[in-house]
Description:
With about 240 residues, the protein is mainly α. The protein is built from 4 helices and 4 strands; from the N terminus they run αααββββα. Strands 1-2 form a two-stranded antiparallel sheet. β1 (about 130) and β2 form a beta hairpin. The two termini are about 55 Å apart. It comes from Candidatus Raymondbacteria bacterium RIFOXYD12_FULL_49_13.
Amino acid sequence: xxxxxxxxxxxxxxxxxxxxxxxNISLERLSTGLRINRASDDAAGLSVSEQMRTQVRGxxxxxxxxxxxxxxxxxxxxxxxxxxxxxxxMRELAVQSTNDTLTTTERxxxxxxxxxxxxxxxxxxxxTQYNTQTLLDGQIGSFGAAGSGSCILHIGPNxxxxxxxxxxxxxxxxxxxxxTSSSITTQMRANSALTSIDVALGSINRLRSDLGAYVNRxxxxxxxxxxxxxxxxxxxxxxxxx
Length: 242
């Protein structure tokens, strides 16, 4: 017995299966809007696309980190501004107390306000926080030497040192600013206090300047991350989208 093969039918069925596969792929691409839906569509393209997506997600989180850093720095700067105002008032009181027109009793009253301001500076130093971290006690983040501490802000998508930004915030307590034994109960002490307060004002001004520079740098970092994120998304779209 001879078995005949219907070659034409087999070819037709094979062609139909191929057409169906191609049609299904086309429909899938139309429904998803993607040229690459699985590794078999384009293995190399998928790998590059996924790496770009990883970078985009990292950049998005890095922007959030930088924004959190700005919030932290603005809280610290606001408190430092208030401390500077109190130091200015302490200086006024010291200048007043150096004048011989004041009696011992009047200097004692003036010193009461002076010491009260010192206590408030220490209180503000101890209660100024971001996410339970005290910002102005000189021990923020990785706990550096006494009087100054550093924290690391991760503002990039990868683990490189270039993706990290170290912020140093010096302590603003009365002790850190060298005013622990300061008083204005006598003319001599008031003169000494003036010198110490001027040093403290220089310190707090430098701190505020540093904080402002940190904020500006972070804002530029956010702008750059925005540009990188958008451009990387556009490049990934060219690879993966229909």
